Amino acid sequence: MKVLAVNGSPRKEGNTHKMIMKVFEALEKEGVETELVQVGGKIIRGCLSCYKCIERKDRRCATGNDMFNELFEKMLAADGIILASPTYFADITPELKAVIDRAGFVSRVNGQLFRHKAGAAVISLRRGGGIHAYDSINHLYQICQMFIVGSTYWNLGFGGRIGDEVSDDKEGMENMADLGKSMAFLLDKLNS
Ligand SMILES: Cc1cc2nc3c(=O)[nH]c(=O)nc-3n(C[C@H](O)[C@H](O)[C@H](O)COP(=O)(O)O)c2cc1C
């Protein structure tokens, strides 16, 4: 079983990354393979609304000149998907939004390719607006017939810049470990 996480933060080793690593630690303890793909800070276009994916139905986005299709193949191969983002003005980063719009469309027009996968949202924030960002990710899972994995609190972690990091949010990090355990539990049930 494999879980793919997509980091929407341009800060490669930042708070969102630390939270993902905590979830991975718990997943790996349960024997689940993990992989991280960085999209924050990379060039990834938004959906061009060309609707060629509907005509072609070839499980690809027609905009083939960026990292999207390679990432999409990894999403299809994974049993579970974690989409993670810092909160930017009470929402997710534009890079992650581009992934959601394009992956959601290509998945749906090709016969619900994400159907019955597990999905979790992971959000870091400094102060407020994290729930709105969290919802932005969960909307994708819900419309794609995926199973949403929660934890012992909403999947949020509080952290700012250097010196005010999410690693100091004890409850938030414990919550990430619990999220990993729950995701492993669900994947085991889905695959048995
Ligand atoms: C452009 C920008 C907008 C932000 N907007 C918010 C916000 O609306 N609410 C909030 O709590 N934090 C906000 N933050 C802070 C980050 O979400 C927060 O520090 C997060 O933990 C950073 O994660 P990272 O280290 O993975 O990038 C913003 C940061 C930036 C750079």
Task: Describe what you observe in this structure.
The chain is 43% helix and 17% strand. By secondary structure, it is α/β, with parallel strands linked by helices. It has a single domain, classed as Rossmann fold, CATH 3.40.50.360. Strands 1, 2, 3, 4, 5 and 6 form a six-stranded parallel sheet that branches. Helix 5 (130-143) links the parallel strand 4 (118-125) and strand 5. It starts with a strand and ends with a helix. The mean pLDDT is 97. It binds flavin mononucleotide. Flavin mononucleotide is lined by residues 9, 11, 14-16, 86-90, 124-129, 159-160. Flavin mononucleotide (FMN) is lined by residues 9, 11, 14-16, 86-90, 124-129, 159-160.
Question: Secondary-structure map with pairings?
Answer:
Layout: E1 2-7, H1 15-29, E2 33-38, H2 52-56, H3 68-77, E3 80-86, H4 94-109, E4 118-125, H5 130-143, E5 147-148, E6 156-158, H6 170-191
Helix pairs in contact: 1-6, 4-5
Q: What is the CATH C-level name?
A: Alpha Beta
- Counted up, domains total 1
- Class by SSE composition: alpha/beta
What does the overall shape look like? Answer: globular
Percent range for β-strand residues: 15-25%
Strand segment count = 6
CATH superfamily: Flavodoxin domain
Radius of gyration: 16 Å
Order of helices and strands: EHEHHEHEHEEH
